[in-house]
Design goal:
The chain is built from seven helices and 23 strands. It is an alpha/beta fold. The protein folds into two domains: about 170 residues, TIM Barrel; about 170 residues, Endonuclease - Pi-scei, Chain A, domain 1 (Beta Complex). The strands form four sheets. An eight-stranded parallel sheet has the order 1-8-7-6-5-4-3-2. Strands 10-17-16-11-12-21 form a six-stranded antiparallel β-barrel. Catalyzes the oxidative deamination and cyclization of 2-amino-3,7-dideoxy-D-threo-hept-6-ulosonic acid (ADH) to yield 3-dehydroquinate (DHQ), which is fed into the canonical shikimic pathway of aromatic amino acid biosynthesis. Pfam families: DHQS (PF01959), DHQS_2nd (PF26558). It catalyses: 2-amino-2,3,7-trideoxy-D-lyxo-hept-6-ulosonate + NAD(+) + H2O = 3-dehydroquinate + NH4(+) + NADH + H(+).
Length: about 350
């Protein structure tokens, strides 16, 4: 996931306003050398500086550094960010070496735009370091994050402009979106199976019509379970909620990983997905497990059969191939619903290449 650090400049008033804008935009990592304690009164933030009390140690702003400098700082059991100004080919080679030891490498270039960054990204593909670029405004940040196929991992925005900071926050949120190729699966069986424990997931996100989360009994295929964003005669709409299904079911989380519904708790992350397959990260605000009557739904796509168990109630909905919500109380064999199919298996929620039979 792309990320950004904010480095405010000028007077404390100027910096305070920009830090407030950064917190409102979702950034909680601030580069500052003078006001760590005061900044932390504004919110729960991490301070990046060369001071002993920094959360992340920053070196290289005032002198050229070496691998030995980074290793010395890492002995203090802190993450280290190495700042390197790129002026020539030797500086590029230094970055490649530092990439083997530093946690973050912040690049600053005075006489370059795209080409050196492309070279550096290519040389560090197999490194553990996160590549960042020191930028002065939103346009430079956008260029750095989008260079080549992957762009830099992050940017250091040296600016007090609240509008620039907020625009960058919107860009980071957009780049965090994932896309899932939803298929039209044909419903082959609908069966009441009795009482069981089901999970209601309340998120910190207001979902729209056509949006929900991916849930299923099998790792090979997850149904798009619709949010409670529709009004009905029984209950008011709750756009933040998905009545997701039985406790054993998988739910898709960021990075194409899954978790069991029963594991979710406040502060965890899940993916909300719309009918076009565009996914965004949502924070779980609450997870409720209650005994309810369950309905087993089976569907098939190109010979692959998947199942899920949901509460047997009119307010529980899937999404049809027409991208419209449909209540499970009205669902029939032969109907087509949206689902995500994956190849291989899962090991502790991560996709792996392994043969597995689910039934």
């Amino acid at each position: 996931m792309k990320f950004a650090w904010i480095r405010p400049n000028g007077t404390w008033k100027d910096r305070k306003d920009s830090i407030t804008a950064a917190l409102e935009a979702g950034f909680d990592e601030i580069v500052d050398f003078d006001n760590a304690e005061t900044i932390k009164e504004l919110g729960n933030v991490k301070i990046i500086s060369d001071k002993e009390d920094a959360d992340i140690t920053l070196i290289g702003l005032d002198k050229k550094i070496s691998i030995e400098d980074v290793n010395r700082e890492k002995l203090k059991d802190k993450k280290v960010a190495a700042y390197v100004e790129i002026n020539n080919k030797e500086d590029e080679k230094l970055v490649s070496k530092l990439g083997t030891v530093a946690d973050y490498i912040i690049l600053k270039g005075k006489n370059w735009k795209v080409i050196p960054l492309e070279n550096i990204i290519a040389s560090l593909q197999n490194r553990n370091s996160k590549i960042m670029v020191d930028v002065a405004n939103y346009e430079e940040a956008k260029l750095a994050l989008e260079t080549m196929e992957h762009g830099s991992d992050g940017v250091l925005l040296s600016s007090n402009d609240g509008n620039e900071i907020r625009k960058l926050g919107e860009l980071i949120e957009k780049t965090a979106q994932e896309t899932y190729d939803l298929k039209s699966a044909t419903v082959t069986k609908i069966e009441s199976v009795g009482i069981g424990d089901r999970v209601c997931v309340d998120t910190c996100t207001m979902m729209n019509v056509g949006e929900g989360i991916l849930v299923g009994s099998f790792a090979s295929g997850l149904f798009l379970i619709h949010s409670e964003s529709l009004e009905n005669e029984y209950v008011a709409s709750r756009p933040f909620r998905v009545n997701a299904g039985a406790v054993h079911a998988y739910v898709m989380t960021p990075g194409n990983k899954t978790r069991y519904l029963s594991e979710l708790e406040a502060g965890d992350e899940v993916l909300t997905v719309n009918a076009d397959g565009v996914a965004s990260t949502a924070i779980v605000g609450r997870s409720k497990i209650e005994k309810r009557p369950l309905l087993m739904i089976e569907a098939e796509y190109e010979g692959m059969k998947i199942r899920t168990l949901v509460q047997n109630a009119e307010t529980i909905r899937l999404v049809t191939d027409k991208k419209e919500p449909i209540s499970v109380s009205k669902l029939k064999v032969g109907d087509k619903v949206l689902a995500y199919f994956s190849e291989g298996a899962r090991h502790f929620g991560m996709a792996i290449e392994e043969q597995i039979i689910e039934k």
